[in-house]
Amino acid sequence: MEIKDGKSMVRSLKLSSYGEIRAACNGLVLLGNSRICGPIVINPVTREYTVLSRGTIALPQDESYGFAFSYGTGVYKVVHLFRDHLPYFGCEVVEVGSHTWGSVDGPSFGLISQMGKAPIVSLGAFHWMPHIENNEYIVSMGIDDEKFREIQLPKTSGRYDGVDMVDCLSIVSQADYNQLDVWILEDLDASKWIFKQRIIAGLTLCMVPFGYSSRTKLVLKRDINQTLFTYDFEHREMKEIEMNEDCSPCLGSNVPHFNSLVSWKNRVGQRLER
């Protein structure tokens, strides 16, 4: 879905035959369909793709795939976090271009209860919101060191939701029925958050972050009727997005994506602007 000038437009990447979209990175898309094969990494523009080996099979609601570029090693990595029938968590990682999944020590028991969504990637780590609500921390795994840790959330009231804010992690807190507070994670190791802005715009109850259409515009979704809004940080203005008839943001989860000509074979400092 593209959002431009207050209107939404849906464009098909024509990838449904390959499987479901799990994550995206630098214009590459990670697809998963464990019934047929392992995950697939594809560039929707060039149609170049590679099939990864099949990892541990789990139900969609009991797993999460992350996809990121490692600036330390110059390779793309796929992380697969999954929950077994006990239920304990397992984790495995594979480099794109390799065919061997490596086992990683997963998060401790009880640290995460919410699964099914792709993690947000920023500050050299994957980040998961661990629970549907009442979160006091986020769970992060370093892209390079592959170690899990807890990152304490800022001490404020309200429900938290995480969203990718163009190469950084943004947290939106429902502080009141007409108030949303936006925080930015500045320092991963120190769990340091910066307060960005307070949004006061009519009834914001049941609004959750949907993504960012630019560095200055936050996209919000109202769960009650699935309508979308943009909030402009510079002008402090909230506007409803004119929805295309084919646009259904309520279906499944969403991941940020932009078209590019990048290939996972080019392993030199791929930092792309959206």
From TrEMBL:
Pfam families recorded: FBA_3
InterPro entries, A to Z: F-box-assoc_dom_typ3, F-box-assoc_interact_dom, SCF_F-box_component
Record protein name field: F-box associated beta-propeller type 3 domain-containing protein
Domain F-box associated beta-propeller type: 20-219
